[in-house]
Every structure is written in C-alpha cells, then in structure tokens.
Amino acid sequence: MTTNRTQASAVQADADVGTGRTVGKPGRRPSKLRPFSGVWYVMPSLVVIAVVIVTPILLSAYYSLTDYSLLRSPSWVGPDNYRTLLSDGAFRQAMWQTLVYTFISVPLQTVLALVIAAMVARRTRHRFGAFVRSALFIPVIASMVIVGSVWRYLLATDHGLVNTVLGVAGIDNVNWLGQPVTALVVVSLVTVWKNIGYFLVIYYAGMLAIPNEIYEASSIDGAGGIRQFWSITIPSLRPVTLLVVILGTIWSFQVFDLVYTMTAGGPGGGTVTLVMAIYGAAFQNMQMGYASAMAMVLFVIVFLVSFAQRVLLNRK
Amino acid sequence: MKRSRSTMLSAAVIGTVGLTACGGGEGGDVDSLALWLPPQANISDASDWAPILENFEDEHGVDVNVRIIPWENYEEAYLTGITGGEGPDVGLMYAEMIGDYHSQGALVPFDDYLPNSDAPDYLYLDEGQVGGEQVAIPLVVGGARVLYYNADLLGEAGVDEPPQTWMEFLEACQRLLDAGITPVQQPWGGHPGMLNETFFPLLWQAGGELFNEEGTATAFDSAEGLAAAEFLWELRESGIMTEAVTSLIGDDVEAQFTQGQTAFVFSSDARYPNFEEGDFELGFVDSLEGQTRATFVAADALVMLDKCPDKQLCADLVAYITSPEQMAQFHQLAPYPPLTEGAEYVGPQVFESFYAQPEIQRSLPIVAGSSSVYNALHTNLQQMMLGQKSPEQALTDAAEAGDRALENAQN
Q1: In chain A, how many domains are there?
Q2: Of B327, B346, B362, which residue sits at a domain end?
Q3: pLDDT (tens digit per residue) in A258-294
Q4: How far is B309 from A316, CA to CA, in rounded Å?
C-alpha cells in the first residue's frame, strides 16, 4: 500500500510540473500539499491591497451615505447625497465638461500616438529616431504644474507666442483661456500634447513585436505602406489600442492638476471637471459626504471602463 | 477695521471669574506644542521662528515645533492634519477658514485663557471675534489692496491728478483709452482670492456688505452690490478692461503694470517693491470713493485648536508671540503693520499713513461657509465679465447659491 501511495504521489508530482502547484524534490518524499497554502504567498499583497485600495473605497462608499465634514463624526443620511447629485446643476456641468474633455483628448492622443509611432518604427535605424522618441517623451515626465504654467504663457491673449504666430498670418488675437469653449478645447489639446509620448512608447513597443515576416510577405504580394498600416499594423495592435484608449479615458476622468493650473476651473466654471468638483466639495466646502458621493460616481465610471477593457481584451 | 480694547476689558472680567478654574492648565506635563504657520515675507523655514520662540520654550520648558505649511495646500494640510489627529495645537488661519472650524467646534475661544496670559494691548481684536467670543488673535494684518498708478502714462493721457472717486477713475480711464493706453486690467482668470482686490473693495465703497450682521445670509444682492457689479461691468463693456481679463491671473496683471503696459492696477501693498522696479513714476491711491472709502486688508489670526493639551499654555504661547517684543523680531523678517498699541511701524514708509486710517480698512468677516459663498460669487461675476449674465442676474444667482451654502455650513 505504501509503495502504491508513493508511486501515486510521484505521478501526481510529475503531472503538477508546469502547473504552478507545489511539487516535491526528485528522490525525496513529496511535501504534503496544504489547503490554501498559496494564500500565505499572496498575503502581503492582499494586505496592502486591502489597506490601500479596498478600505478607502468601502469607507468612501460609507461616507457617501453620511453628512460628514471631517471635523465632526459622520451622521447617516442614506441616499440623500445621491439625490442631491441628481439635481445639482454644477455637478452635471462638471460631468458634461469631463465628458467633452475626454471625447476630445482620448481619440486625438490615440490616433496621433499610433501614427507617430508607426512613422518612428519605420525609421528605427534613422539617426533621429531615438531623438524623436526622447523628445516626445519629455512632456510626459514634466510636472503638470510646470506644463500648465508654460502653456498659460504661450496661450496668453495679448503677448502669447501662439497669438503672435497667428498674428503673422493675419489672424486676430484669440482669448484662448478666457472663453469657456476655447479654454476647454485648449486644455484638452495640451493634455494630448502631454500624454502622446507615453502612448507612443506603448505603441512603439507593440509595433516592434509584430513579426517582420508579415510585412515582407505582404510586400511580395504588392502591399504598400498605407495598406500594410491598415491591414497589418492596426489589427495587430488591437490589444494595445484598447489599453491606450482605456488608460486615456481613465486619466481623463481623473484630470485635475493641469486644468487647475491653466484655468482654475474658469472662466465662469467652464472648465470645472469631476475631480475638481470633488476637491471643491471636500476641501473648500467641507462636504466630505457629498464629495464621497461624487467620488463613488467617478469610481463606478472608471470601474465600468476597466471592466469593458477586460471584456474586450478577452474577446477573440 | 475698528481698533478695540473693550473686548479685552470684558474678557478680562469674565476671565477673572474663571481664573481659579483655569489655573495651570488641564494638560499637566506638556513637553511640546505644535505651531503651524504659513511662509511670510522673508520667513520660509521653521528655523526662522526659533529666535522668536526660544524664550518661551526656556520659560515653560516646552518645545514649540513649528511647521511651515505652503499656501498652495494650506487648507488641505489643516483639514487632513486635524482629522488624522496630527494637526497643530496653535495655528494661523484666515477668516474663511476660521468660520468653518469654529462652527464645527474645532477651535477653543481665548476668552477664558487670554486674561491669565501676559496679553498685550491689541489693536485688532474685533477681527477675531465671532458672536462675542474671541476665537482668534490677529497676527498678520496687512496686504492692503490699493490702486497703484503709473504717473507717466497718466501724464501722457493728460490726467494730471490721480483719481479719487469712482467717477474720476472712469474719466481718467476713458482719457487713457482715447490716448491708446490700456487703462487697467484685473485677474478674472484667477482664483476667488482675487475678489479681495476686484469686487469686495467696490462693494464696501458703495456702502454694501457681504453678509447680514448674524452671518446667516448673504447681503451683497443689494442696491450697493449692484452698483459695484455695474461699475465692474462698465469697465469691461467700455473696453477700459480688455476681453483678455477673463484669462488673466494676478501675476499677468502685475507684470503688465510693472512693464508699463497698463496705467492702473488694484493690488496688495506687498507688491510695492516689485512695482517700484518699473521704469516709471509710481504712485497709489489708498481707496477710491464711492459712497464711502474702504478697501481690503487681510487679518490672518492665530487660533487655538481643540487638540491643544494645555489650553492655558497655548493661550500663553499666542500672547507671547503677539507681544510687542516678539512682534518686533517678527516684523524685521516680515514687515507688517503693528498689532499692538504703541508699537513701532516698520513697514514701507509710503503705507504708514494708510495704516493710520483704520476707518477705511476692512477685513473679511468670520462666517461659516464663507468660502463657498466667495466661490459662487467669483464664478457668477466671471460669467458677468464674459457677458453671459447681467450684473443683476450674477448677484442674484450668487446670493442664491451662497445662501444655500451658508445654510449647509451652519446647520
């Protein structure tokens, strides 16, 4: 019986190779598998996630159902904060402006990053290839506050560089940051300028992973550069594009620093975003319960976007 | 801004009654106190406060741990610090903060403690009172908003004397405009704090008020408030201020003035040295006159937090810091007007006469929820400057949102 058990264990151990399960060393008696033993290996990560991510989300969900100012204990108000959100014009305006900002910045930065990455990838050995990649990455590592301040000066109505250049072409000064519509568009475009280097690097890495043989074969079949781009590059980069779109969307919904630096939410509230509204409610109006309700709405949006990414990536 | 000693006297009476109860403080063996302050003029590091505080530390056997909180995240630092139990025992707050913290029971009034301290003869105690309680002791009174002018540009436009009234100001601006000179710009693309130099002085000059006496409702949606808003709108509509004002922040406006591109700027006395560097003859008017003369002066004040383990010791610290000897040291690094009777004025000499006129100096009242009110007022006046709302509509909408905010904050 003992022999049979040992043989059975050895067979099981062989079967476990490559599956990630615990196996005994050859020539020794295999260690006994303990139920849930893997839990201990991931416990440090679980604790960190529970403390840093799950607990704040649960607390925020709880506070969203309370009247809470941080200085006083929260008092339960049920769904009142959410009811107020429904009738809050400022919240609806912030949500709408965040959506507009997202719809401008995400498609633009995705398409531009893809196109520029394709151009750079085709010139990997060109002496300026590395320089272009590095140059486009500089805005990514620059501080949001510095980026915002620099662009404020460039876009100044009276003596800004942008209007000066347009003036040479005979175009009158544009009050870029002084009108709600242009301010929102301009802030979205600066975001594109800031993010494009990051997404370019992701696309570039994805392009290098596409086997060159496919391009060679298509060339033999007579496909040109544009045809290759449409029929090989774009389909091959589908998972990368999904990642870029989802990341860009999540970042757009979380935008704060850049807008705060460039317009402070103005003029006339025309560039207040969702996170700025949350910040104002929490730290200026001391309405942490109400701010938490807004934060939960943002959380649900980001969660749904992330969930959509997972579903789309898993689809064959 | 009224100078008052009556409050101190009444507080002294109340304090004498409770003297024995207060005694040496309830904290027992307190070995350190946390003091939170912002950077001020040439004070940017906690070590700058060490010489000022060392006698107090020796005398009471405590360490006063100073933390300098940057202005950029001042309110967040207080809110998160206090919530996390790591906030200050004594700290400096501005009026918008004091109202909220006081209404939520986070501050301890000084009335029971200050009379037992060696408190000096303060000039601006009224600025720290709420509902008859001495909630705060002003530490920094200054930052007066005045109307600077470029005398050279005024001369070019044939304006021989600087304007003193609203009408004279409009006439001077029109002459400048006719001479092809940009008369004035304001930072309407900035934060609500810019109301200190744009709307609030005009409101007071028109005879209006921000809140009712109890601080329970807004009061700017009035005939006086409308006069102030219409004055601003006239500046914008007539082209005296360009359409670019809705994108300008304080630095932009001040840079334009310093470079001689605009003839007037409403700004703080702290900017005088910068403006002096401009290549022109600089002058300023204390306050324009509407129905009366008045302008904004900041009155940032020391408060005692509920967390303080020994309230008497904290009150002693505040009395010590604000005493003439320590203020003399403080004012060497941060030259603000004196806080106490008889103290020497060490600020810029050109502003000495201004600070000798307390009747034209106005500070923001301490009202819970006032930050939200100013935000609403700022947004609606911005919309007025964009031409999206009439002055009436802007004030009505701001008052409606402001009253709602006050109700939320005070109930």
Answers
A1: 1
A2: B362
A3: 999 999 998 999 999 999 999 999 988 889 999 999 9
A4: 65
As for the ipTM of the complex, it is 0.82
Residue A16's closest CA among A33, A29, A28? A33
pTM of the model: 0.86
B69 in contact with A, Cβ within 8 Å: no
Nearest-CA residue of chain A relative to B411? Answer: A67
* CATH code of the domain containing A217: 1.10.3720.10
* Cα(B12)–Cα(A308) distance, integer angstroms: 68
In a domain, B12, yes or no: no
Residue A29: pLDDT over 80: no
Is residue B73 in some structural domain?
yes
Q: Which residue of B has its CA nearest to A285?
A: B372
CA of A148, closest CA in chain B: separation in Å?
13
**Best to test chain A binding among B69, B94, B107, B247 (most A CBs inside 10 Å):** B247
B95 and B153 housed in the same domain: no
Phi, psi angle pair for B18, to nearest 5°: -95, 15
What integer is the mean pLDDT of A166-176? Answer: 93
Look-up: residue for tokens 């922040």? B249
Contact B188, B210 (CB under 8 A): no
CATH number at B121 reads 3.40.190.10
From A57's Cα to the closest Cα of chain B, the distance in A is 17
CA distance A284 to chain B (A): 6
Of B83, B252, B405, the CB nearest to A285: B405
